[in-house]
Write a structure and sequence with these properties.
CATH architecture of the largest domain: Up-down Bundle
Strand content: under 5%
Number of strands: 0
Helix content: over 70%
Largest sheet: none
CATH superfamily of the largest domain: MFS general substrate transporter like domains
Number of domains: 3
Structural class: mainly alpha
Number of helices: 17
CATH class of the largest domain: Mainly Alpha
CATH topology of the largest domain: Growth Hormone, Chain: A
Order of helices and strands: HHHHHHHHHHHHHHHHH
Oligomer: single chain
C-alpha cells in the first residue's frame, strides 16, 4: 500500500512536467502532417514542381529519423530539462525561419531544424513517462501519449487545409512558434528531471554510420514511393543504406557503451510486441497514403474532402488510446493484441472491396475499423515492449521503437503504392478501373499478411495474476 502511495506521490510531483512534455510531443507529431496539404501553396508562391515541394515533408521525415537513434545517447549524457529546452528552442527557431522565409530553401532549413527538435522530443517524452509511472500504470501513461500520437496527425492535414483557405501558409509556422514559446515558458518553471545520467562517451563513427544508414534507408524508401523501385535513386540508396546499417549494428555490439543498444532484442517480450507495432504502423501509414490516392485520383474528391473522410478514423485511434492503456494495465496485452490485429484484418478486407461507386460511409467505416484495431496495438504493445526492459535500457528501447516506426512508415508508403501500381499495370484497361483493381488486390495481400500478425499476437505473454 505504501508503495502505491509513493508512486501516486511521484506522479503528482511530476504532473506539470508530464503535461508539458506531452504538449511538446503534440507539437512534434502535428508538424509531421501539418504541411501535407499546403504543397500547392508552396508550388504557386515559389514556382516549384511537385517533386521539389514534396521536400517540405521529406526533409522533416529524414532529419527526424536521423535524430531519433541518437536520443538514447543524449538522454544518458544530458539532463531531461536540458534536452527539453534544446528541442523547444529548435522548434522555435525553425518555425521563425519558416515563417519569415524569403526563399524556399529557408523553409526547408526551418523544417529540418524543427525535425531535430521533434527527433529529440518524441523518444524523450516516452522515456520520461516510463521512468515516472510505475509498472502497473504505464499503460495509462502510454494511453495519454497515444492520445497525442493519434489525434495530432488526424487533425493536421484537415486543419491546415481549412486554415490555408482562410489565411496565408506562413501563419501555420506562426501557430507552431506561439505554442512553442508558451510550452517553453511553462517548462522554465515546471520542468523536472527524472533521468539518471551515466555520461557515456560519444562514438563519432557510430553517429556517422547511424546518420548515413537510417537517413539513407528513409530516403530510399521515400524515393521508391515517389519514383518507383526501378529508379537507381531508390534501390541503390536502399542497398548502400542496408550495408551501412549492418556495419552500424556490428559496431554497437562490439562497443562497451553503444550509442544504440541492440541487445534490447535479446528480450523476447520486447521483440514480439515491437514486431506488431512495426506491422501496424506500416499498414496504417500506407493506408493514409493509399486512401487519399483512391479518393482523389479514382473518385475525384478534393484534398479537403479526403482529409475529412479520414478524420473520424484518426479521432477513434486517438480517443481509444487512454482506454486501451487502462485495459492493458488490467488485463495485459495478449487479448488486446489479438483483437487489434483481427480488426485490422477486417478493415483491410473491407478496403479490398472498394470500387468506383463505394458510398462515403463505407470508406469511413472501413478506415475506422482499421484504426480501431490500430488502437489495440499501438499503446498496449509499446507498453508491453518497454515493460520487458530494465530501467537502464528504456532510453534505448524508446529510441529503437521510434526509429523502427519511422522506417516502417517510409516502407509502408513506398511498398503499398508500388504493389498497387504494378498490379494495375499488369491488369491493363481503363486507368481508373485498373487502379481500383490494384488497390483491391493490394489489400487482399495485406489481409493475408495480417493473419500472420494475428498468429504473432498469440505469442504475447499473458498478464501474471
Amino acid at each position: 500500500m505504501s508503495s502505491s502511495v509513493g508512486d501516486n506521490h511521484s506522479i503528482k510531483q511530476h504532473l506539470p512536467a508530464i503535461i508539458i512534455m506531452i504538449s511538446g510531443a503534440f507539437i512534434a507529431v502535428l508538424n509531421q502532417t501539418l504541411f501535407t496539404t499546403v504543397l500547392p501553396e508552396f508550388m504557386a508562391d515559389f514556382h516549384l514542381t511537385s517533386s521539389v515541394a514534396q521536400w517540405v515533408t521529406t526533409i522533416f521525415m529524414l532529419v527526424n529519423g536521423i535524430m531519433i537513434p541518437v536520443t538514447a545517447y543524449l538522454s544518458q549524457r544530458f539532463s531531461l530539462r536540458h534536452l527539453f529546452f534544446t528541442a523547444l528552442t529548435l522548434f522555435l527557431f525553425g518555425s521563425l525561419l519558416g515563417m519569415l522565409a524569403p526563399q524556399y530553401i529557408f523553409i526547408l532549413v526551418g523544417r529540418a531544424i524543427q525535425a531535430m527538435g521533434a527527433g529529440i522530443l518524441m523518444p524523450l517524452t516516452q522515456t520520461f513517462l516510463f521512468l515516472v509511472f510505475p509498472l502497473e500504470k504505464r499503460g495509462m501513461a502510454m494511453g495519454l501519449f497515444g492520445l497525442v500520437i493519434g489525434f495530432a496527425p488526424a487533425i493536421g492535414p484537415t486543419a491546415s487545409g481549412w486554415f490555408v483557405n482562410m489565411f496565408n501558409w506562413r501563419y501555420l509556422f506562426l501557430i507552431i512558434l506561439i505554442i512553442s514559446i508558451v510550452v517553453l515558458v511553462l517548462g522554465l518553471f515546471k520542468m523536472t528531471n527524472a533521468t539518471e545520467l551515466s555520461k557515456p562517451s560519444l562514438d563519432v563513427l557510430s553517429v556517422i554510420l547511424s546518420t548515413l544508414g537510417f537517413g539513407g534507408l528513409l530516403f530510399g524508401f521515400s524515393s521508391a514511393g515517389q519514383y518507383g523501385w526501378r529508379n537507381p535513386l531508390s534501390y541503390v540508396t536502399i542497398i548502400v543504406a542496408v550495408i551501412i546499417l549492418i556495419a552500424f549494428v556490428l559496431r554497437q555490439l562490439k562497443l562497451e557503451t553503444p550509442m544504440l543498444e541492440m541487445r534490447v532484442f535479446q528480450h523476447r517480450s520486447f521483440t514480439v510486441p515491437i514486431a506488431l507495432v512495426v506491422l501496424m504502423f506500416l499498414i496504417f501509414i500506407g493506408t493514409m497514403t493509399m486512401l487519399p490516392i483512391y479518393m482523389q485520383s479514382m473518385r475525384g474528391m478534393s484534398p479537403l474532402q479526403s482529409g475529412l473522410t479520414l478524420l473520424p478514423g484518426g479521432l477513434v485511434m486517438g480517443l481509444l488510446a487512454p482506454i486501451n492503456g487502462r485495459l492493458y494495465d488490467k488485463m495485459g496485452g495478449r487479448i488486446l493484441a489479438v483483437a487489434g490485429m483481427t480488426f485490422i484484418f477486417i478493415g483491410a478486407v473491407m478496403i479490398s472491396f472498394l470500387n468506383e461507386t463505394s458510398p462515403l460511409w463505407y470508406i469511413i467505416l472501413s478506415f475506422v475499423i482499421l484504426t480501431f484495431g490500430n488502437s489495440g496495438i499501438m499503446v498496449p504493445m509499446t507498453t508491453e515492449a518497454m515493460n520487458a526492459l530494465p530501467k537502464s535500457l528504456i532510453p534505448h528501447g524508446t529510441a529503437m521503437n521510434n526509429t523502427l516506426r519511422q522506417i516502417s512508415a517510409a516502407i509502408g508508403t513506398g511498398l503499398l503504392v508500388t504493389v498497387m501500381s504494378q498490379l494495375a499495370m499488369a491488369h491493363g484497361g481503363d486507368p481508373v478501373m485498373r487502379n481500383i483493381f490494384g488497390l483491391q488486390w493490394t489489400y487482399r495481400i495485406v489481409a493475408v499478411i495480417v493473419i500472420f500478425g494475428i498468429i504473432i499476437a498469440t505469442r504475447i505473454s499473458k498478464k501474471q495474476a
